[in-house]
Design brief:
With 563 residues, the chain is mostly helical. The longest helix has 34 residues. It contains 19 helices and no strands. The protein starts with a helix and ends with a helix. The protein folds into 2 domains: 269 residues, no CATH class; 204 residues, no CATH class. It is globular, with a radius of gyration of 25 Å.
Length: 563
């Protein structure tokens, strides 16, 4: 019966490939081309960092190992986040759950099948993005086949542990709070996750890498670097196993093997046992009618009405409808609080950087970090956009035919989606940039440059989300969270990352030239000014292209949509 319960996902994927051969070919080529470009860029970045580390005597390998530990810890934390978000929808809110529970399948089979869906939906994208990082380690350390096999060997129990932790946490919370009262669940859950993320990050203590003055001697400093990050974290066990494969020392890891696999198997057993006790009770509560709170509703509608009044009554009505739908849909707005925890940790990281202890002159380091922070903030906005903006068109669901048959033109419909998300994203991006730059104490030039750059980046990121969301819609989704984990979501993340990287690369040379001239008191030559102005003109053109092309492709797609 378990095979029958999980077969719809595979059949849906198989049926999705039964389109016209030309369309499938275009989809495969698009995915392959953009995927290769993104993987190469990420691979090259980590490859250069690891090559630099390997050139440093004594501490090079130590730094590389700590970077690997940090990457695995971040992936592990994001896996838990992703499984928590997806498990709430797959186990309690999906529309086909009533059919599953009315079937002859046992409760254990239903729970395992929905958990299987959760693992597939939550894990595949992280694995795809993590592959070039792991490959870079393999190339730098000339790893053999056993390292690449170990990646599969280690990833499986790590995913199982993260999935089990997320699913069990949701089951416990839904046991005490009905799933439809997701506001209470997520508010409580957000506090837990912020604390957990803080503790996980503090286990690594990254600031000690640039603050050797806190140690009396070099021996103590190196000893602290070699100290285990936390022997109780599954990501630490995985780091030890992979590091031994990279360095060729295969002995002394039996305990880590046992810890990783025994923990994964134990958590599966505990999860199934817990599901037998509390899962169905929580599902029953999820079917209870929801009480709608009208607190703050009139204020919210008044704000939306004032902001959108110049856009015309049709767009105003559509945006107001989207705002109401967003806050009524628990699986949508609840993710905002979860991802907000990541933003808090992101800002906190800048507040604890001991820049005054760095061997690099502080003013140089501050402005270099500020420039790199443009790209980091852009990736944060992209991560938010793939969850909220990319599904914007798909959120209309099977009622999309009403939009097509209404007097509202497809162009105005698409641009109303764009305008609805543009302002919140611009505000968030500017807050991230300005506040982190304030913590870094950057020069006025870098503050202005980064603020203006992220401002225009958001225009392109939002347009990519809305446009590609219209090109790859899913109007028959069981829950809206599934839209971002499909083929279109992956394409969006890759193209968005390429777009952000291209803008950063175009600005890097001119920014370095201007800052160098300021710090050294030199004059910029006419040839350099021509190059600087030309680079920034290219940045403007890239941003215009990033807005115009996706929206045009999205308009063409929804105009040709026939259901």
């Amino acid at each position: 019966m378990f095979k029958v319960l999980i077969s719809p996902k595979f059949l849906g994927f198989k049926n999705g490939l039964r389109g016209s051969r030309s369309r499938i070919k275009i989809k495969v080529l698009t995915l392959t081309g953009t995927g290769i470009l993104f993987w190469l860029a990420l691979f090259f970045l980590f490859y250069r960092v690891l090559i630099y580390f390997s050139s440093q005597e004594i501490i090079g390998d130590i730094l590389a190992r700590h970077l690997l530990a940090m990457v695995l810890l971040i992936f592990f934390s994001l896996l838990i986040f992703s499984h928590i978000i997806t498990a709430l929808a797959n186990l309690y809110i999906s529309q086909d759950l009533e059919l599953c529970h009315s079937s002859p399948a046992t409760l254990t089979e239903i729970f395992l099948s929905r958990s299987f869906y959760t693992v597939i939906d939550s894990s595949w994208m992280l694995l795809v993005f993590g592959l070039p990082v792991m490959m870079a380690y393999g190339f730098v350390y000339h790893a053999g086949l056993n390292y690449y096999l170990s990646l599969i060997y280690v990833s499986f129990p790590l995913i199982v542990i993260a999935a089990s932790a997320g699913i069990m946490l949701i089951m416990v919370l839904v046991r005490f709070f009905p799933a439809q009262r997701a506001r209470d669940i997520i508010m409580f859950l957000s506090l837990i996750l912020i604390v957990v993320l803080y503790l996980l990050f503090r286990f690594l203590r990254p600031e000690r890498l640039v603050n050797p003055d806190t140690f009396i001697s070099i021996a103590q400093y190196l000893g602290a670097l070699r100290a285990p990050d936390s022997p109780y974290l599954p990501s630490h066990w995985a780091t030890d196993l992979l590091w031994t494969r990279l360095t060729g020392h295969t002995g002394g890891q039996i305990l880590n093997h046992l810890l990783l696999w025994s923990t994964a198997l134990a958590m599966v057993v505990v999860g199934v046992w817990m599901a037998g006790l509390i899962y169905f009770n929580g599902f029953s509560k999820a079917q209870e009618a929801k009480r709608r709170s009208r607190t703050g509703r009139k204020i919210l509608e008044k704000i939306v009405s004032v902001i959108t009044r110049p856009l015309g009554p049709d767009i105003t009505s559509l945006i107001a409808k989207d705002v109401r739908t967003f806050f009524r849909d628990n699986s949508q707005w609840s993710q905002l609080l979860l991802l907000g925890a990541l933003v808090v940790v992101y800002i906190y990281n800048f507040s604890v950087l001991p820049l005054e202890k760095s061997p690099i002159k502080s003013i140089y380091l501050q402005n270099a970090l500020s420039f790199l922070n443009i790209g980091l903030a852009g990736f944060v906005i992209s991560a938010l956009s793939v969850r909220f903006i990319f599904p914007a068109v798909s959120s209309e669901g099977q009622a999309f035919w009403i939009i097509l048959s209404s007097p509202l033109s497809p162009r105005r419909f698409l641009w109303s989606k764009y305008l609805a998300y543009l302002l919140p994203m611009v505000i968030l991006a500017e807050m991230l940039i300005v506040y982190t730059n304030y913590l870094l104490r950057v020069t006025p030039f870098m503050m202005a440059l980064s603020s203006v750059t992220i401002f225009f980046l958001v225009f392109g990121i939002v347009a990519l989300g809305v446009g590609l969301g219209a090109v790859y819609p899913n109007f028959r989704h069981e829950n809206i969270a599934q839209v971002a984990t499909g083929f279109g979501g992956l394409i969006y993340m890759i193209i968005s990352a390429v777009f952000i990287a291209l803008v950063i690369i175009l600005e890097a040379g001119p920014v370095y030239t201007i800052l160098s001239a300021q710090f050294r008191g030199e004059t910029i030559t006419h040839v350099q000014w021509i190059w600087i102005i030309g680079s920034f003109i290219l940045v403007v053109l890239v941003n215009i292209f990033a807005v115009q092309r996706p929206m045009a492709a999205g308009l063409k797609a929804i105009s040709a949509y026939e259901g």
